[in-house]
Amino acid sequence: MEAVPGAQAVSRALRVLRAVARTRSAGINLAQLVRDTSLNKPTVHRLVLALIAEGMVEQDPQSLRYFVGRECYVLGSIANERFGLGREAADAVARLARSSGDSAFFSIRSDVFAVCVLREDGDFPLKTHVLQPGTRHPLGVGAGSLAMLAAMDDAEVERCLLINDQQLKTAYSNFSVPMLRKEVALTRERGYSVNEGRVVRGSWGVAAAVRSPSGDVVGALSIAAVESRLQRDRQQEMGRQLQEEARHLEKHLAGAAAMRPEQKLKRIVRN
Questions:
Q1: pLDDT interval class at 84 (50, 70, 90)
Q2: What phi and psi, each to the nearest 5 degrees, are found at residue 194?
C-alpha cells in the first residue's frame, strides 16, 4: 500500500489524544504521556501543543495536567447523532447495572480494537475496576471485545487476529490466536461471550454483541463482576439479559435508520 504523506504524524497525534482520554477527569502530565505513548518527550510535547491549538486537548494552568478538550465533545456529539447510540445505549447500561448489581458497560468497535465508552456501577459493594471508559484492547481481549469478534464473519475474524497477533504475544500473555479462535467458536454456540479472568485474575465478564441494521458489528453490552458472582448459572442468566438488551438496542438503531434513510448506518469508521 502506498504511504500517505503525514500519516505517521496523524497516527502519533491520535496516540497522544487517546492517552489523554484514558485518564478521564484525572488528567495526565507530560512524563506520563511519554511513558504511555512510547514516544520521545520532544515529539509528545510538539503533538500535545498542536492538539491544544485545535481544541482537542486542554491544559490546566495550575496542575499543568492535560485533559480532553471541548472540541472532542463537539465531535463526539456529532458522531453520536450519526450512529444513534447515545441515550439508548446509556439506558441499556443503566438497566443492566441496576438489575445485576454489578458493573455494566458499552464498548464500540474501532477496526481491530474494542473501546469502552460507557460504564455504570450497580449497588453490589465489591466491584471490579479493570474496564473504564477509554480502555482499549485488541478484539477478543475481554468479554465485550470477544463478543464483537465472534459476531464477525470468519474472514474478518482472521484479519483482526492476524493484525493483532504480535500485540497479543507481547502484551497479553493469557491470549493467543489459536485460543481466541476456540473462544470465538464457543461464543457463537452460546450466543454470548464469557471472560473467566483472562485479562485480570478474579475479574470475570459476560457480553453480547450489538449490530447495526446493515449487519455490521457496532459494539457490545457487557457485565463484569468478581469471580464468585459469575459462575455458570449466573453466566447464563446474565447472558440472556445481555442478549435481550442487545436486541432492544438493535431495534432502536433500525428505527433510527428508517427515519433517516439518507444516513443509514454503515460500518463504524475505522480509526
A1: low
A2: -135, 130
Place of cell 520521545: 40
Distance CA 223, CA 97 (A): 8
pLDDT in tens, 11-25: 899 989 988 988 877
Among 224, 211, 192, CA closest to 265? 211
Beta bridge partners of 73: none
CA distance 6 to 4: 6
Tell me how far the alpha carbon of residue 187 is from its chain's centroid. Answer: 18
Per the CB < 8 A criterion, the answer to whether 182 and 120 are in contact is no
For CA atoms 137, 143, 144, 146, give the dihedral sign. positive
**What pLDDT shows up at residue 257?**
65
- Which helix (DSSP H) or strand (DSSP E) does residue 136 occupy? strand 136-138
Q: What is the spatial distance between Cα 262 and Cα 259, in angstroms, rounded to a whole number?
A: 9
Are 117 and 189 part of one and the same domain? yes
Q: What is the pTM of this model?
A: 0.73
Q: 101: phi > 0 → left, psi -120 to 50 → alpha, else beta; which?
A: left
**Residue 271's pLDDT band (boundaries 50, 70, 90)?**
very low
Q: Determine the pLDDT at residue 128.
A: 80
Q: The domain spanning residue 215 has which CATH number?
A: 3.30.450.40
Which residue range(s) make up the domain with 253?
Answer: 84-263
C-beta separation of 19 from 28 below 8 A: yes
What are the tens digits of pLDDT across the range 207-218? 999 998 888 999
